[in-house]
Amino acid sequence: MSSQIELRYHLNICCCMIMFAHYIVAMTMKLGLIALLLALTSICVSAAVFHPISQSHRSAALELFSNADGRKQTTAMAMKLGLIAVLLALTSICVSAAVFHPISQSHRSAALELFSNADGSFSSLEEAYEALRTFEVLGIEKKPEDATCKSVVDTLSSPSSNSKDLYHALRVNGLLKCKISTAALEGIASRLKDGLKHATLLLDYYHAVGGLLLIKDQSPEVDVLLGNADGIVRSIKALSQSDGRWRYSSNNPESSTYAAGIAFETLSGVVSLAASVIDENLIGTLKKDIVKLFDSIEKYDDGAYYFDDKHIDASGHQGPLSATSAVVRGLTAFAATSGSLNVPEDKILGLARFFLGIGIPGNSKDLYYQIDALSCLENNGVSVPLILSVPATVLSLTSKDKLKVRVSTVLGSSSPPLSVKLMQVFSSGSKDASVLKQELRFDPKEAIYTMDALPEGVDIGDYVFAFEIVLSDPELKSKYATGGRTKVPVHVTGVVKVDNAKVTLLEGDIVESEKKLDLPGKNDVALSANHLQKLHLSFLLTTPLGKPFKPHQVFLKLRHETGVEHIFVVDNTGKQFKITLDFLGLVEKFFYLSGQYDIELTVGDAVMENSFLQPLGSIELDLPKAPEKATQPPPQAVSPYLRFGPKAEINHIFRVPEKRPPQEVSYAFLGLVLVPLLAFLVGLLRLGVNFKNFPTSAVPATFAILFHGGIAAVLLLYVLFWLKLDLFTTLKTLGLLGVFLMFVGHRTLSHLASTAAKLKSA
Amino acid sequence: MVKPSSSAATKDDARALIHSLRSAYSATPTNLKIIDLYVVFAVSTALIQVAYMAIVGSFPFNSFLSGVLSCVGTAVLAVCLRIQVNKENKEFKDLPPERAFADFVLCNLVLHLVIMNFLG
């Protein structure tokens, strides 16, 4: 659910964000003017996206930007912080004067888009009514399918439909004029009257009374008059609260503004259906209720008034738009029956502004609320709001644009004869305003009020123009709500003259060389200087009216061949802008980098039509050599856009395999290792080794063989462990083998020992 | 003429020394000679591996270490066995050579389990 301030605020924030983003990008790029240009493009972009309120947003954004105080940009950080603060502050400033536009063609196309289903049918009669009502108000000729009419007839003839269904069907019938017999309507009327007798809920009253009213309109011969009108009014009034809001039922303590709107509509219906005149006192208390309800009205800075609803209503649809729409409907219905309305006209105009300020809502329900409420405001006989709109709020002095003002009703129809006066012009810089009372010329052909020349003294810059609408016929004054003064932000742009631009090279106070510059134009200065000299740049800026002008951005930039940049803010005294670069004090800032520096001058402002970013030429600097401790120039940041590009691919670095010896060497050593083994075997033969000690009898020999086989098995197990087995398997097998080996080893060795002992004793 | 005569005398002395050593060693029992031969075999194998490492580099260092330590370890165990088996060594007079051999086998098996684990 959008509301005017929310929408505006979001859009402004949107603009601010885009501008701010561009601004930071530009600061990183150290390009002052590009910031300005990008910001202007972003304004256009946002205007294009939010098309219907394009003009007001373009100007609001322009105002935002032009007020942004970019003048004291000493350091980037301070400036950024300052900018945030200024932008936040400006969101409130820029809405204080705003342009509202009446309903236009864009609303019609939006309505067609939002309400058109693929097959032209509607899911419910309520939705059908909303679509048809919106089309009717906007003057769109679109015939729905016969299915809608059939559904109306079905609903009305079905005995099971309740008062709500009947009400919605009758509403659609009121627009479509389907064929319903008078007898059928009479039956429905009696059913609704019966329902009214047992009604306890506010919505029951609303549907029944609304249905009876619709029958009265559609078929005057049906008797719909209510005998007990006073009683019904009293029982509805019993649901009201002390703050002017209403409850939906007596059990539910929560009150809502939406319910109040419905209650007023129902009550005015009862009044017009009453068989006898309603008690004057009752009408009087209802009027007091309206005044009380208006105490809770809320206001935006731009003069829009609205009602906020904190509670969810029966239909589940809540928010300022539905609540305000319901109140407006109830209010105008009440005004139509009672003939007067003691609501101040600025409130009426404020409500109209609220609905217009929304622009084009995003869903069909909101669009219906907006259009229906505006239609009620347009057609009320008591106080019709007149909307003053300015088609173009950016005026160029160069092309001598004329200020044009249009006055119309909310739906865009022409206004009664009237005159528009420009009362005051506020300059954005100063608080004082010149009082003018200048009347605008009316062009009946285009229905536009034109001011042939801008008021005297209006130079380039930002202004707020205060207009007043004066109706030619004083009798109409009570019929229309003009709402006093309408403030409109206006931006005047023009060409700023650049004079006496020159660049000078000084040594001490003696002028070494001087060169005149042609700004904005092509320049190619070629200078050379050492650290004892100074560079001096000066120029004059004058507005078309000859006044001094201070743009947002005046920067001088020096860029070294290596890409290191230095930005200097050029200060002014009156018209004259000048800057002196004393290289002796700047050597450290320049990182002792000698060589060629490109000079660039930026002069930019939102209202300056000839903003420029101009290369002036170059200067060859001869600076002393850097001492050892001097700071190194910062590495040049890559373009900020590159930061979002793909990062360098990460490759896994594999371990380089160790250098292996040639195979021949390894084989040679394998052979060499076998040599000692051979020598060992030969040595054993030479020593005369024999197996005489090996047991000869069967049993010890078996044990001895098993013992040696066991050792061989363990060694084989080790080889297997080396080749494929894991430690656990190896250890398990080794345990078994070990026990076996101990046993056979013990038997063999003890046998050997006993034989040796026998030999000794023998 | 002093020098040559003295050098000839040294040569003779050395020859006499080696001769006496050989004659003394020939008196050693054969089983000890076998052990000595085994120790020489093990140490020379270790030396060849060290030479290989010096020439080629120690890249699979754990393999080199296990190879060398296997040889050196066995040599040490063989020396221990020789000490225990030697009849003239009074200290182990009561220890039967079979028992010493059993120790030798057991220690070798444990040593080579570790070596195999370390071989990689």
UniProtKB/TrEMBL annotation, chain A:
Q: Identify the Pfam families for this entry.
A: Ribophorin_II, Ribophorin_II_2nd, Ribophorin_II_3rd, Ribophorin_II_C
Acetylation among keywords: no
- What GO CC annotations are associated with the protein? oligosaccharyltransferase complex
TM ranges are 7-25, 31-50, 81-100, 667-689, 701-721, 727-744
Identification of the protein by name: Dolichyl-diphosphooligosaccharide--protein glycosyltransferase subunit 2
Q: Which organism is it from?
A: Artemisia annua (Sweet wormwood)
The lineage's top-level taxon is Eukaryota
| Record-annotated Ribophorin II N-terminal domain positions | 103-378
Automatic annotation (TrEMBL), chain B:
- What is this protein's function? Subunit of the oligosaccharyl transferase (OST) complex that catalyzes the initial transfer of a defined glycan (Glc(3)Man(9)GlcNAc(2) in eukaryotes) from the lipid carrier dolichol-pyrophosphate to an asparagine residue within an Asn-X-Ser/Thr consensus motif in nascent polypeptide chains, the first step in protein N-glycosylation. N-glycosylation occurs cotranslationally and the complex associates with the Sec61 complex at the channel-forming translocon complex that mediates protein translocation across the endoplasmic reticulum (ER). All subunits are required for a maximal enzyme activity.
Choose any GO biological process term that the UniProt entry carries and state it: protein N-linked glycosylation
Q: Does the keyword Protease apply?
A: no
In terms of PANTHER family, this protein maps to: DOLICHYL-DIPHOSPHOOLIGOSACCHARIDE--PROTEIN GLYCOSYLTRANSFERASE SUBUNIT DAD1 (PTHR10705:SF0)
List localization entries. Endoplasmic reticulum membrane
Q: What is one GO cellular-component annotation here?
A: oligosaccharyltransferase complex
Q: What is this protein called?
A: Dolichyl-diphosphooligosaccharide--protein glycosyltransferase subunit DAD1
Q: Lineage of the native species?
A: Eukaryota, Viridiplantae, Streptophyta, Embryophyta, Tracheophyta
Q: Which family does it belong to?
A: Belongs to the DAD/OST2 family.
Q: Enumerate the UniProt keywords alphabetically.
A: Apoptosis, Endoplasmic reticulum, Membrane, Transmembrane, Transmembrane helix
Q: Which Pfam families match?
A: DAD
| Segments crossing the lipid bilayer | 35-55, 61-81, 101-119
